[in-house]
Amino acid sequence: MNRFTISEQFFLDQASASASGGLSTVLNRLTLVARMLASEIMRAGFVGKLGYTGTSNVQDEEVRELDVISNDTTLQVFENMPMVAAIASEEMEDMHVLPGGEDGKYLIAIDPLDGSGNVDVAGQMGTIFGIYKRPATGKPVTIEEFYQPGRNLVAAGYVLYGPCTMMVYTAGGPVNGFTLDRSIGTFFLTHPNLKIPEGTGAYSINEANEPKWDDKTRAMVETFRRQEADVGKRSARYAGALVGDFHRTLLKGGIYMYPGEVAKPNGKLRLLYENAPLGFICERAGGAASNGEIPILDVVPTGLHQRTPLFLGSKGDVEEAVRRMGKA
Ligand code: FBP
């Protein structure tokens, strides 16, 4: 693997000998989304796009202008791609069936702009995507085709927009990271075959939510906070952007937690386009991902925007967190 391994060639090289090249093409289009959004995010301050639209999305969250731009960019990039049948997005209540979608082989679940609360403070943000195969082609897409457990993903990845722009993905094999050279618009392989460390890293959680947790969750988090976890001492880090917190966890180890709350037992994060894709990557990197009771990849969605609690990171950390909540 020489220093100049670029994403386009890498996707093709990684594909199986019998592959049609369809998945590589979809992944390449996702790098185009990444490059376009990296540019939009960098320019947003100059063109007054850091604000809110004044509307709310299906999540009943205030929508940022960049949320809309990110979703529209994704739809435009895939509008003329016959191999993708439909897209499910955090920003759209229903799936978006692409022209000629009934013949498409793939489904994309995407959070176009994760961590959009960081838009106006130059914080980390990201894009999260999962790619599924349809059960069959040649007939109209049904929303139930998206109701597949993360175990069925054929590929998953994320883009991190931060001091640098990175894309990290797996097509079911090793997890590989690419860094964007903005001057030439090319992603170069910089983090081959990522494996999540054990016994190190931070615990990452919004501590302000403590009053909302049940007693077992509170006691478990207190164990990490007091550096008394069986898996060792942990510092605390919370970027307010799932992709940023997960990327740090993937490279340095540790655990990201968004637990359920007494009033909202399913928590905040969405299974289809946040928890399952990142859980797929985490497991392929040797880590674990749980909803607090079972592996996140075994949860079968019953809706596009279904929420689940999320415990994601080093296997030992996730297993201890789940055990201490008494739901293992
Ligand atoms: P979206 O920004 O895509 O809605 O993602 C949800 C999210 O912003 C995560 O990125 C982040 O980890 C979490 O919410 C932060 O939630 P909170 O502000 O409640 O801690």
In short:
With 328 residues, the protein is an alpha+beta fold. The protein has helices at residues 7-14, 22-43, 65-78, 215-225, 242-252, 271-284, 315-324, and strands at 52-56, 62-64, 84-89, 96-97, 106-114, 125-133, 155-161, 165-170, 176-181, 186-191, 202-204, 235-236, 254-258, 288-290, 310-313. The radius of gyration is 19 Å and the shape is globular.
Descriptive overview:
The structure is a single chain. β1 (52-56) and β2 (62-64) form a beta hairpin. The relative contact order is 0.13. α1 (7-14) packs antiparallel against α2 and α2 (22-43) packs antiparallel against α3 (65-78). The chain is built from seven helices and 15 strands. With 328 residues, the chain is α+β, with helices and mostly antiparallel strands. It has helices at 7-14, 22-43, 65-78, 215-225, 242-252, 271-284, 315-324; strands at 52-56, 62-64, 84-89, 96-97, 106-114, 125-133, 155-161, 165-170, 176-181, 186-191, 202-204, 235-236, 254-258, 288-290, 310-313. The chain binds 1,6-di-O-phosphono-beta-D-fructofuranose.
